[in-house]
Specification:
- It comes from Tepidicaulis marinus.
- The protein is mostly helical.
- It has helices at 3-30, 35-43.
- The protein is built from 2 helices and no strands.
């Protein structure tokens, strides 16, 4: 197998592999059973019970 043959093989099958991977990621993102999980994850940044104090933010006590 020459470099040109390998390059053509890798280019063709690499494209097919990445396309299948992309379709799998899209299917996972839009799969109905994952909706609750993604909705819960989307609210995580807003679920702070209480703000961090200065020490937890890395600031020194005065």
């Amino acid at each position: 197998m020459t470099y040109e043959d390998f390059s053509h093989f890798a280019g063709t099958w690499g494209l097919v592999f990445l396309f299948v991977l992309f379709i799998g990621a899209i299917a996972y993102a839009f799969w109905p059973s994952n909706k609750k999980k993604f909705e819960k994850a989307s609210r995580l940044p807003l679920n702070d019970e209480e703000p961090l104090n200065d020490e937890e933010n890395g600031e020194e006590k005065k």
